[in-house]
Structures are given as C-alpha cells and as structure tokens.
Amino acid sequence: MGLSRFELEFLAPKAIQENRNLNVNKEKLDEFIGLCKIGGLSAEWSYVVEHFITTYLNELNWSIDKKKTIEYLTTINTKHSTSYYRKITYQIRKFLTYLKIDWANDIHPPSEPIYLPKRITKENIQNTLTYFNDNSYYKQIKALILSGCSSGIRAEEIYQLTIDDIDLNNRIVHINHNPKNGQSTKTKISRISFFNKDAKDALYEYLTYFYNDGQLKQLFSQSHITRIFRDAPIKVKDLRKYFSQEWDIRGGPTSIKKILMGHSLKGDVDLMHYNYQSEGDLKRIYDKIMADNIIIT
Predict the structure, then answer these.
(1) Does residue 72 lie within any of the structural domains?
(2) The whole model's pTM is what?
(3) Could you read off the pLDDT of 118-147 as tens digits, one per residue?
(4) How many distinct structural domains can be found in the chain?
(5) Could you tell me which residues come within 8 angstroms of residue 226 by beta carbon, excluding any fewer than 6 positions away?
C-alpha cells in the first residue's frame, strides 16, 4: 500500500519542499501588514512595506517560487541602490518567514553601504533660505529650516508634527511615537528636543499665518514639503546633519546629543543604566550649547 499524500508531504526532502509553490491571496498579505501595525509600524511605513510586497507578489503572480524570487531580487539589485535593495529584500524575507517558507532564511540582505556624511555649513542654510525668499510659503519653509537645524529631529518626524507638539514658550518640541495618530519614531519611543530663539520667532510667525490663513491643513505635509524642496540647495534630512555637526563643533556632549536626536541607546551602558537627565537638565544643557547662539544671521 502506497504512502498517503500527507505522508508524502511530511516525509518529502527539503529539496522537494523548496520547489513547491505556495499560492498567496490578498487576505494573507493584509493579515501580515496588520500584525506589523500592531507591532508598532507606522501607517506611512506600512504603506511602503505593502507596496514592496505587492509588487513582488504581482511579479510572481501571487505564487511563491524560490527560483522566481531569486530572479526578482537579482533584477531589483541591478536597478536600484544597495540601500533601497536592502530594504526590499529585508521586507520580502520577513513576509516569507511569516508564511513559514523553508528557504526564507537563505535570503541575506546586503550590509549597509559605507556612508560618508555630507558636510552642511551655515552658508548652506543661508543659501537655502535665500533660494526660497520669493516663495509664497516662505514663512512655513523658514520655520521648518530653523526648527529642523536647531532641534535635530528627523525629516519624517517633522512631517508628523502637530500644533500640540510645539511648546513655543518653553521652546520644546514633542516627538511622539503614537502610530494610531500617524506618528512614529525610529526607536518606537517618544522624546523631546528643543529649538533655539531664532526658530521660536520663525515658528511664531508661521503659526500666526497658519491659524489665520486656513489654507494649510498640516504644519509640514510631507508631499507638500518634498515637492517644494525638490530642487533646493539642501534637503530636509540635511537639517538634522547640520544640528549634529554644529553641536559637536560647539563642544556639546555626545551623550546628550544622542538623547535629543533619538538615537538608539542599545549597547550604550552609560545611557541605558546610569546617565539619566530630566527635562530641565536637558534644556539647561541645550541652552548652554545652542539656544543663545545665532545659527542664521
């Protein structure tokens, strides 16, 4: 008597299992994305991940196949940068692991490429402000530039800011991790940072315009800002570089910079277990380094 289909599948060698296709439907993908959101993935990044995987599944006609997967990733690797290819490969591997595909662990995203930081100078900031001088959204742009280069927060965090996140009187910006409200941080931890007096004046002027004009619905909408900065001398993400470089030039402590910029503290024993700083402590240190110094003349 021959073996049953179940027994054949159970006893099949790995080589045979790897060659068997697995059909996937939209419901399974939605389930995976939903679990990612529960795990703290922001709505914006969830959309990106879903796009990555949907494009991959469309290419394979929603039938998981090892050979076609290798061919797809090889094509992506030749067409895009290492950084972009790495993101796609990592998300596809996560999805395949979720589906319990045996060969998912054979997919190894490449290491991060060697990256040399771009030097952002005061002249770069000034030139950018001059570039936008006649722009109808100049008040908004100036507020974004000055608050970004004096607070050190990420571009994605700037786009997510709401009016309630900005404390003008105390020059505090709250960077919240709240995926339900469309806000997320890289470390999945909320934090605060500060902005200097120039940024306070620019934000006050912009918020007055924001309240009275009524045309803009978000403080710094990503699609709107990205379009405006398309041909600008610097990008929004460069403002964070300026803050980091300027802080070091002025002799600011690296430990405090890590806290303000929201770096991961894993592996830093001092910051994880010993070096606690209250909000007041952080602000006093920040003011000593940044607040009373004019960044933009």
Answers:
(1) yes
(2) 0.68
(3) 899 999 999 999 999 999 999 999 999 999
(4) 2
(5) 236
